[in-house]
Structure formats: C-alpha cells, structure tokens
Write a structure and sequence with these properties.
The protein has about 375 residues and is mainly alpha-helical. It folds into two domains: about 120 residues, Serine Threonine Protein Phosphatase 5, Tetratricopeptide repeat (Alpha Horseshoe), CATH 1.25.40; about 140 residues, no CATH class. About 55% of the residues lie in helices and about 0% in strands.
Length: about 375
C-alpha cells in the first residue's frame, strides 16, 4: 500500500513539474535572447574611477587593461609619498627614535624631511584633483583632510601653507564649526611663532560663529584669501538656512515647539550643522529671525568687499571665467604663470566647497551687482 501511494505521489509530482516546465516564460523573466549583457567600453580599471573618457593608458605589465592618466598620476604620487615615508622611517637617532616622533611640531626644520612633506602634499593635491573636485567622494575629502591636519601636527610652522586648504574640506564635510575655530586661531595668532612648542596650538573650540568678522579678515594687515572666502561661505550658508527657517516659521505658525523644530530642519537647504543644531534659533519669532538675517547679511557684505578689494578677480579665478579684453588688471600686474598658479590654489582651496553649497554663488552674484552699482 505504501509503495503504491509513494508511486502515485511521485507520478503526480512528475506531471506537475512537466506541466510547469511546459508553461511559457513570464514576461518578468526575460529569456537569454533578451539578456542585457553586453561588452563594456574601454574604461579605467581603478575600482573608484571607471572613467571612459580622456586619455587611457594601457597597463605596461599585463597589456590587457587601461588606466586613465589622472588615476595613473595619483598612483605615482602615492608611490612617491610612500617611498619618502619609508626612507624617513629608516632614519633613527642615537636613541633609536623615529623622526616622526622626535620632530613633532618642527618636522620641516629637520634635515631630510622636506622631500617627504612635499611628496605628501603633492599626493593630497593629486587626490583632490582626481577624486575630490566638486561633487567628489566623501572618503576622498576625509582622507585629504586627515593628511593635512597630520602635516600641521608635524610642522606647526606650515611652510607649505596647507592651512589654506583645510577650512574648505571641513565645510564640505558639514563641519563649519571646526572650520571656523581653525581659521579664528590663525587669525588671532597671525603674529605669533606657531612652531613655539611652549604655546598652545589650534586650541579654539566652539567660537561664536555668528560674531562679526575679525578685523584681519576685513581690513588686514595681511589677508588670507582662502580663509576669508571660507569664512564668507560659512556666513552665506548660515544666511541661506536662516532665510529657509524664516519661511518655515511663517508657514508653521500655531505649531507646537517640538513640531516646529523638526519641520524647520526639513526646510533647511544646507547639510551643515550650525543652524540645524540650534533649537534656540529655530524657535525664534519671525521678527527675531529677520533681525538676525539682517545682521548676517551685513557680515556677508563686509567679507565680500574685503575679497574684492584684495583680489577683484577672485570669483573669476575659481570659476575659470575668462577676463574680458578691456578689463583693467589692478597693479601689481600678475604674469600668466602667476595667474595660473593662483587659479589652481584658489580652486583647490575654495571652489568645491562653494560649488557644493546650493545657492551660494547666487548670493555672490547678487552682491556683485550691488557692488558694481556702488562703485560706478
């Protein structure tokens, strides 16, 4: 009996499987003839790249794959940096100390270290050029920032001015407060010997980011354009979020405080943390917000005018806009080589953070129109 039942079930199962196999293939399950598989075009084999345009170089080892020139340049820059690092690691003092431990703070002043610092800086610059441009990769920005901060730890005197690049990277990561604290320290201590180990270093935390701009950012005596532009961008980001919060407060009259905070945060246009993390600001009345907005607008204008006085071509340089043939270049006239060098530095230090802030260039265009009317 059991044998016959087993045979019956097996026969039915076979019939069901056969019928299922004879059913047409559903439209949701395309046949192999409809496969999306196809040959891919020549592309950079670096996993983080995949570029299919520009100059692609055949791998000299396997002769089977290609890499783009930019990725190849980055690979070479990394190799040069690692080579210099390994060379320094082999140098030991009489007490078997590493230069990386012994020379913290004044690394640049020790023999044999400058080639390493230059190679590391070149690697960071190449990294940002290849993968860290506007809309680039977050991990690239984080890596570059980590290298630059460590270079400042090693060499507080900062002979290569890596401090100019740091604030923009902080801003791109939504760390406006860290950027502001960093720049304020340099502004306050601009006349001090930064390599003096008896002095504190980069020890400003949670400075008032809504305060009026420091005189050194507005009137000098010496202006760091990269820092002033970064301070200006922070103020612009605050302004844009305050205006969004003001619009939200108008739309949310009558809501309870907890609802207001969360809803207003959803209105904010900037991914940073300054306004978003300040419920005391988000809960202000429309009138109070209007007063704060006017105050920040005044700060934005002063910083913008400071940049224009010190370099009228700043915005053209970082956006690669060509000068008109009739435009007069203020003295001292820069050579083409100096202009290219300045353009490269300003783009590296400022362009990406501005380009990644939605609405920032619109604010500057509006200020530019007002500035032109006032100076005619």
């Amino acid at each position: 009996m059991l044998v016959r039942l087993r045979n019956y079930l097996s026969a039915n199962a076979l019939q069901e499987n056969t019928e299922a196999n004879l059913k047409p293939v559903p439209a949701a399950m395309p046949a192999w003839s409809q496969s999306d598989y196809k040959l891919s075009p020549r592309a950079c084999e670096l996993p983080t790249c995949g570029n299919t345009e520009g100059n692609l170089l055949r791998c000299p080892a396997c002769q089977a794959v290609y890499y783009c020139v930019e990725s190849s340049n980055l690979e070479k820059a990394r190799e040069a940096y690692v080579k210099e690092e390994q060379a320094l690691e082999e140098i030991r003092t009489s007490n078997n100390e590493s230069l990386f431990d012994l020379g913290v703070g004044y690394f640049w002043d020790i023999n044999h270290t400058r080639d390493y610092m230059r190679a590391r800086h070149d690697m960071v610059n190449t990294l940002l050029e290849v993968f860290g441009g506007p809309g680039g990769r977050e991990e690239t920005v984080e890596e570059a920032l980590g290298h630059l901060l460590d270079m400042l730890r090693l060499s507080r005197g900062d002979g290569m001015r890596v401090r100019d690049t740091v604030p923009g990277l902080y801003i791109r990561l939504g760390e406006e407060q860290a950027a502001y604290d960093f720049m304020k320290w340099y502004a306050i201590n601009h006349e001090e010997d930064w390599s003096d180990e008896t002095r504190t270093y980069l020890d400003i935390n949670n400075a008032d980011i809504f305060e009026d701009p420091l005189d050194i950012w507005v009137v000098g005596p010496s202006i760091s354009l990269a820092h002033v532009a970064a301070v200006l961008l922070i103020k612009v980001r605050i302004l844009l979020d305050l205006q969004a919060a003001q619009s939200a407060r108008r739309a949310l009259r009558g809501s309870i405080p907890a609802e207001i905070i969360e809803l207003i945060r959803s209105y904010l246009v900037i991914s940073g943390r300054i306004v978003k993390s300040r419920p005391d600001i988000l809960l202000r009345s429309v009138e109070d917000l209007a007063n704060l907005i006017q105050r920040i607008k005044g700060q934005v204008r002063r910083l913008y005018e400071s940049i224009n006085r010190n370099n009228p071509h700043f915005w053209n340089l970082i956006q690669e806009e060509r000068f008109s043939g009739t435009e007069e270049v203020p003295a001292p006239v820069l050579s083409e080589a100096d202009l290219l060098k300045m353009r490269h530095a300003l783009k590296r230090d400022n362009l990406a953070s501005w380009a990644e802030t939605r609405g920032a260039f619109d604010v500057i265009q509006s200020l530019g129109a007002d500035f032109d009317r006032l100076t005619e």
